[in-house]
């Protein structure tokens, strides 16, 4: 009886199986990389705003404190978006006729809100409380990056769950003294491990990683 399969059939079959396994592994790896990429997370992407407000100028240049505009950052869940009146506290006196600021003047004149585009926009199923993190010694720049160097604000971190868990599992690596929370140029000291361990105990910081902490 003639031989049905080639003498190399087993080799071809093994090579085919190995090829499929490699292809599947590469596909999963590519999908994983894509899910973490800025293209998906929108990290490092500027958002078009009704007025291209420069944090670099207002925070880094003039030295305006975060809390002047984001008034509820240490008292409420949301940091708060400043009303147009806050802008006009200064711009009723300076840059009065700048066409660049006409949307601000129109908003104030017509008593209509500017429709700012949220940059750090968490999904609706995620609960996040700004005031808790501020009171526990988590600095603004830890999550938002050096906004004092951003002409236009962009999302520095991925905001994915693994990013949040990195801090929740090891808060001592990120906590800073409360008086330095709003300090943009804060640098962790050489003894961060020792300082962090002390502050975690002093501020009663819990390593909360159960689902209900953020998904309520």
Question: Could you characterize what this model shows?
Answer:
With 216 residues, this protein is mainly α. Among the domains are: 9-36; 72-79 and 120-216, no CATH class. Helix content is 42%, strand content 0%. The chain has 10 helices and no strands. Helix 5 (84-91) packs across helix 6 (102-110). The protein is extended, with a radius of gyration of 25 Å. 11% of the residues are buried. The model has no long low-confidence stretch (mean pLDDT 92).
Brief summary of the model shown:
The chain has ten helices and no strands.
In N-to-C order, the SSE pattern is HHHHHHHHHH
How many helical stretches?
Answer: 10
Shape: extended
Mean pLDDT: 92
In oligomeric terms, what are we looking at? Answer: single chain
Proportion of residues in β-strands: under 5%
Number of strands: 0
Radius of gyration, taken over Cα atoms and rounded to an integer in Å? 25 Å
**How much helicity do the residues have?**
40-55%
- Find the structural class using helix and strand composition: mainly alpha
Report the sheet with the most strands, covering strand number, pairing sense and barrel closure.
Answer: none
Q: For the terminal residues, how far apart are their CA atoms?
A: 71 Å
Low-pLDDT windows of residues: none
